[in-house]
């Protein structure tokens, strides 16, 4: 009976240690995903950020595994200590990075240092844990079980991060929660194993202090985020929300509202009318019989507001990926006033979907397609400026229809602008490039595209426009030498030339 009890206790101890492997893998991958997502929010180019962070993390784990050879005695003590360190460093990484972003010139050094330290600590844990377990398991059984739990933990982390952690907790609380889990595992092992008795009292103080630190930060995560954004934005932050797709921030001062997505200014209420009038009216006033319009992007409803000034328009389909955006701009009183309740119009139908897939699968057709995507700062957005995407537009564009694309600044990003024009041309469209001055952005570019040249400049415009007139439209067609056309590559899915142009040209203007 005693032997049975001993065997049962041994199996419980093994299961606890194997559960630790699962927790290590889950927490480690969450810290890695938090760092990659945060870096893409703050610095753009999600592919580069994730690639370099994953590489740094895996390399650091290798360094940690190699260093584990120098830990020879007191393996459980070392394991518990490292587990606490992983919890504190990994858990505090997101709030630290948000707070330091605006104040550290070499932010990347801090970012990769935290990723590297976390990777080294995680890399130390698995070899030490395997050495603790080897006395009770055959080698092949030990390797099979440890790596099974390790890979299952990685799978769980990869699933819950985008589906649960980011939309419901946000990056700061996600990292802090898993820091608490790491430290709690250390506490469980400290009180489960008798060999931990000699250092139980001293480690208990460390573990309790670490959990309290992480818990306090978890409770005040919103204030930490608000404080970091107060440092980042000149004006008062009145709304901030993490979604599975982006960070939405709205600021306000005595003169204007400003919307930021992932830290990038999208519009100022003081001059957004210039941008949106220039986006919509040069094309739509040339289509006096237009009835159906498609907006891709434009979840703020401001392009829709301009389109609804034409009484002949029967229906508008607005396709925006993020439902949080369209909900926000259809429910907030200040924003509804700004977009004239356009998102609540009976003529408008909102679809929250990926624009590429939606266009590819659509069987509908439209007189005007307004493309109001964010700038091509990363590959996930760059695909929406590619020849593959533009070629899909042919089957949804009605005869004599027009497409208009917001196309970044032809002054700051001259190659990027003309790359968009050339990509549209390579996709079988005739193009009409034009630009407008928007004080918040400077010179901003647009491109109209059509299958046959039907565009006119002499049709009447709606009354009450603040910026656009027939004379203004003619002026928009002129490009001075510093914005004039120059040769570029074509933006294809397999090269994403546009993203590379955009990064190079905008780099001097980005933190």
Characteristic key phrases:
2 domains; alpha/beta; four-stranded antiparallel β-sheet; Growth Hormone, Chain: A; seven-stranded mixed β-sheet; 17 helices; Rossmann fold; single chain; 511 residues
What does this protein structure show overall?
The chain has 511 residues and is of the alpha/beta class. It folds into 2 domains: 2-218, Up-down Bundle (Growth Hormone, Chain: A), CATH 1.20.1250; 272-509, Vaccinia Virus protein VP39 (Rossmann fold). Helices cover 56% and strands 14% of the residues. It has helices at 2-43, 46-67, 75-100, 107-133, 139-192, 200-219, 221-232, 272-284, 302-307, 323-331, 333-339, 355-361, 379-382, 387-392, 414-426, 470-476, 497-506; strands at 236-242, 247-252, 257-261, 264-268, 292-297, 315-319, 348-351, 366-372, 397-406, 430-438, 442-450. The strands form 2 sheets. Strands 7-6-5-8-9-11-10 form a 7-stranded mixed beta sheet, sandwiched between helices. A 4-stranded antiparallel beta sheet has the order 1-2-3-4. A hairpin with a 2-residue loop joins strand 3 (257-261) and strand 4 (264-268). Helix 3 runs antiparallel to helix 4 (107-133). The chain is elongated and about 90 Å long. The termini are far apart.
């Amino acid at each position: 009976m005693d032997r049975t009890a001993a065997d049962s206790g041994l199996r419980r101890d093994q299961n606890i240690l194997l559960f630790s492997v699962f927790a290590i893998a889950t927490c480690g991958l969450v810290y890695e995903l938090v760092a990659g997502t945060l870096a893409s929010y703050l610095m753009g180019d999600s592919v580069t950020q994730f690639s370099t962070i994953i590489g740094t993390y895996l390399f650091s784990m290798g360094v940690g595994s190699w260093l584990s050879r120098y830990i020879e005695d007191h393996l459980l003590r070392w394991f518990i200590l490292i587990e606490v360190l992983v919890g504190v460093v990994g858990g505090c990484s997101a709030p630290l990075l948000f707070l330091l972003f605006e104040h550290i010139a070499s932010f990347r050094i801090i970012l990769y240092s935290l990723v590297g330290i976390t990777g080294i600590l995680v890399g130390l844990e698995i070899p030490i844990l395997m050495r603790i377990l080897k006395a009770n398991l055959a080698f092949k059984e030990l390797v099979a079980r440890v790596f099974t739990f390790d890979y299952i933990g990685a799978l769980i982390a990869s699933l819950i991060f985008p589906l649960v952690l980011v939309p419901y907790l946000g990056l700061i609380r996600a990292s802090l929660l898993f820091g608490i889990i790491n430290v709690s595992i250390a506490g469980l092992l400290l009180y489960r194993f008798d060999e931990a008795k000699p250092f139980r009292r001293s480690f208990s103080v460390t573990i309790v202090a670490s959990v309290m630190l992480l818990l306090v930060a978890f409770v005040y995560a919103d204030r930490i985020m608000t404080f970091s954004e107060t440092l980042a934005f000149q004006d008062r932050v009145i709304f901030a929300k993490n979604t599975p797709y982006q960070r939405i921030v709205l600021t306000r001062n005595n003169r204007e509202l400003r919307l930021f997505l992932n830290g990038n200014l999208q519009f100022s209420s003081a001059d957004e009318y210039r941008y949106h009038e220039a986006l919509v009216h040069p094309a739509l006033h040339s289509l006096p019989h237009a009835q159906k319009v498609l907006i891709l992007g434009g979840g703020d409803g401001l392009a829709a507001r301009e389109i609804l000034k034409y009484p002949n328009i029967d229906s508008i389909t607005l396709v925006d990926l993020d439902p949080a955006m369209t909900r926000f701009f259809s429910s907030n009183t200040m924003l509804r006033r700004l977009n004239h309740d356009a998102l609540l119009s009976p003529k408008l139908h909102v679809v929250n979907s990926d624009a590429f897939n939606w266009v590819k699968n659509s069987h509908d057709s439209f007189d005007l397609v307004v493309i109001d995507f964010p700038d091509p700062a990363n590959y996930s957005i760059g695909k929406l400026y590619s020849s593959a995407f533009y070629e899909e537009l042919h089957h949804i564009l009605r005869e004599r229809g027009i497409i208009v694309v917001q196309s970044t600044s032809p002054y700051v990003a001259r190659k990027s602008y003309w790359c968009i024009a050339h990509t549209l041309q390579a996709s079988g469209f005739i193009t009409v490039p034009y630009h407008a001055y928007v004080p918040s952005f400077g010179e901003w570019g647009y491109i109209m595209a059509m299958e046959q040249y039907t565009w006119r400049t002499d049709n009447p415009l709606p009354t009450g426009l603040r910026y656009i007139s027939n004379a203004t439209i003619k002026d928009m067609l002129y490009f001075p030498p510093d914005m004039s056309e120059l040769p570029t590559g074509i933006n294809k899915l397999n090269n994403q030339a546009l993203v590379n142009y955009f990064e190079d040209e905008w780099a001097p203007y980005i933190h």
